[in-house]
Sequence to fold (432 residues):
Amino acid sequence: MPKRLSSRLVSRTLAYARSFPLPVWLLVAATLIESTGRFMVVPYLSLYMKGEGVSLGTLGLVLGAAPIANVVFGAWGGQLSDRLGRKPVQILGVAISGLSMFGFALAGANPVVLAILNFMNGMTRTFYRPATSAALADLCPPNKRSEAFALNRIAINLAFGMGPVLGVAIFQTRPLAGFVIAGCINLAVGLYIALAVPESAPGHRKSDRLATSHAATVSIGLGQPAGEPVSSSSRPAGASAWREIARDGGFWVWTAGMMFVWGAYDMIQSFLPLHLQDRQVALWAYSAILTTNALICVFLQLPFSRRLRVAPFARAAGLSKLPFALGFIGFAVFRLPALLIMSMVILSLGEVWGSAVQVRFIPEHARPALLGRYMGLSMVSELGKAFASPAAGFLMAATGGTTVFFMAAGMTLVGGLLLFFAGRAQDRHRPS
Fold:
């Protein structure tokens, strides 16, 4: 009986895996490797800079440089992924980020150099992430996109669990080695994408170039149709495309909501380790907090995404920010590791609940010919980090970390309200 049950479980798992095109799994693997390298060092970058003598205010300004890169180059990266294809943009993003990691190992305490390097490091999110999200949308039919995005998010959160554990061991012995290792990992991911991952952008797939009159199908062992190619006549001209997006009020309200949410969420990576250090909480507790978040997201994201794959946006996107805010309040007031971990449990439940619908919004909202541009412009939400990090740095220097995390809770609630309104507008236009 156990053998039969095990065989049935394996069969169901393989059948589920085959329901996605193989390139989806190749992209998920790339995200896992890239994110593991990045999370080895990013959560400890603030500790490294403080140890080098960088003041809290300057530290906040340096950390705000990467989000500015995301905003400045996000729209360009999205346009490039529509025009040139997803692969070149993905490779460019991880290559620039990898070079910036090598730079951190050599920069010392010069805040200008650190800011430039962090600006370059932001290219991973600016180019790689939007192009990858667009590729997943290219490869999957609408009813599978939420699950594909969930798998990619699981990879990120699995890396969020593994990376800091490796990073804390390296940081406590040889901090600079972590930057070198992370840089090598980024460059290796670029080579992997170049050699193993097929192009998915409409009009750039090999099948589109060979026979534009037929539907493109990606099939490399596992697979299903990836969607119809977008003909050149259906592509809006550059100026008209940007005008259409500029007038899209629902998208901009949604982006503003995500701006507040991401600005608050970034406090976990940037200022939570400093806050815990000031309160004399052991560094292992911070690693345990991140690992807790990763485990919850790894094991619960897919069930939530499957449950909510066609659910309305407004309720989940808005109400999920309540446990987010409670988690931040816990970080503000608690010192005991067990209570801090419980705060992360509550926050993480809100994260998987909200993420299950948030990742669907732009692919369902945007026209296919403009998907790359929309994904790139969604990086405007990174402005939340660009404003929140400097504000948190000066606020922490003046009043301490408790105020910073009460601020994060308030930002989360404001973001949830905006997401609710934008989601409700989108729900009204969805087919019943």
About this structure: Residues 20-208+239-427 form a domain with the Growth Hormone; Chain: A; fold (CATH 1.20.1250.20). Strands lie at 216-220, 222-227.
